[in-house]
Task: structure prediction
Amino acid sequence: MRVQTRPDSSAKSADFAAAANDSFADEGTAIERLAPHLIEQITSSWGTWRLHRFLSRVTMMDRPDRQGFHPEVAKELFTLFLLNKELACIPDYRDISR
Result:
């Protein structure tokens, strides 16, 4: 899985993508290896509010009977969350409340 930015994205987005791609070596990402069921949702809604909501939902522990993600998967999901937030121009909650 390669992270791409839009042509009009900021330098900050490009830096995020470069860092993400550096961490996703040829053997595949932790998400691809350990949580492949997430790939379709991530790739089909990349750069959108829909992915922001999805990643928010899957990374929050809302049921005590769940084990949670492997730490490598969680780290990659958080990286993708931040990059998607930048690409989709999603404001910080602090900015919305003013």
Observations:
- The chain has a mean pLDDT of 79.
